[in-house]
Amino acid sequence: MITGMLAIEAHGLNKKYNTKQALDDISLAVKQKELFGLIGPDGAGKTTLLRVLNTMLLPDSGEAKIEGHELIKEYKSIREIMGYMPGRFSLYEDLNVEENLTFYATMYGSSIKENQHLIAPIYAHIEPYKKRLVSKLSGGMKQKLALCCALIHRPSIMFLDEPTRGIDPVSRKDLWKLLQELKKENITIVVSTAYMDEADLCDRVALMNEGKILDMDSPENLKKNFTKDLFGIRSSDDTFGLIRSLKAFEHAHTVYPFGDYIHYTDIREKVVVKDLLVYLESHGIADVEVKNIQPSIEDYFITLTANK
Amino acid sequence: MNIYNPEYAIEVNHLTKEFGEFTAVNDISFNVKKGEIFGFLGANGAGKTTVIRMLIGLLRATKGDILINGIDIRYHVEEVKKTIGYMSQKFSLYNDLTAIENMRFFGGIYGLSGKEIRERSDELLDQFKLQPLRKKIVGSLPIGWKQKLAFCTTMIHQPSIIFLDEPTSGVDPIIRRQFWEIIYELSNKLITILVTTHNMDEAEYCHYTSMMVKGKIIALDSPLELKKQYNAQNMNEVFLQLATT
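^ Those are the sequences you sent over. The predicted structure of the assembly is below.
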């Protein structure tokens, strides 16, 4: 049970595009100052949910409150307190960096000066190019500017739609560092991503698929729901052969490649590693390493979506 | 003049691409063995896409050589195109055609006969377990299935080398693994795969990887060796070290 004023409180949100149920009875609560993740693949409904919550899109049914303001009736108040960084690039290409920022600040009756400290760590990267037209910026720089524009009026709640999509690991790391900083400024952050490993960087997450929330909790608690013994198996020899042999093993429950290891669960309660090694050896798979591993959010997500 | 090494599917020697004053690709060399899964990694704006566009014959190099299965792409670009497949990160099928119509269309572009297209489509739809989608309008399919179908269509003309540009970005975890199982299977059949990804978990799947920063290849080795060399737990750490030095 969550007490105190909630940043977001939503009940039974539905949204249909023609025949596709984009949001299927979504309810959620996000605490103030929380870093909350919407985690799921493309088509899960992440963007639709963000756009409903930030008043850009009307739901077919359901209700929600953002910082106590009713979604539909008080949409204007919501827009004043929120920042939104859409997934698709949304700046003015024919204005320069500084002009874009000034434009967004002025729209909210604010100025660059007023909240400069908030954007300083990101803006430092693009300030040398402040007279450059946005159309001439690289993708990474455009994205940093979009974030500055969403922050410049000091929103109390931020919606970011897949900010790490298509960017390299260095920029990804920078962005998450920045979100942690914003948390310290008491800003509630709702961020969507298809990268399952980013769930671990959030306070709480909703795992989404096909318009539904499959589960919602802190990443630590979610991982506890993965109750089977999980093994990481690898062979320096023949990964394809290893996958094929494991799948054919009579006791195999799940076999999924995960980076350099194959993640394996068994249908039996007790797994004897030696049996596994003997079996693999009899199938010509040599130099095998088997170890116990801790499940990740992705392991858990797979169990939720595989049993359909 | 290079002497062709039959072990290699791709040979790149001193490749450079300049756009006016800007050097996008700066004197890079690497080889990809036949049947290898080669992870072509790098920071945003490092020049990866420019290299791939040169490798598939969409862009001419300023300097340097590219041999695809021993054929010099500069003089025989059309011949090379028949032996390679390319899947872009942007979905490239026709949404208003069915799966099989898309395959027929792309087969036709590669000059396959009606009979060849029929046989080959069946074979691929079986292999990718996509037969149930055969007559479905592509636009109506879930995104993961669309990507799988795009991959399947890339194979219609039996290419010996496949270029995959962020093939699994945003794809659900189960379908992503089906992708990689197919990639392993293709590699097992000596089909060469060059793949770009920002997902460092996926870099771990590759036999060999290159890392590009600012137009240069600054590391070239197997994930295992790179992790050893940079004293890193995983490829993500390797990437962070390489890209920030």
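Chain A touches chain B at residues 40-44, 138-140, 165-173, 194-197, 209-210, 236, 239-240, 243, 256-260, 298, 301-302, 305-306 (CB under 8 Å). Chain A has a mean pLDDT of 92.

Shout if you want it in another format.
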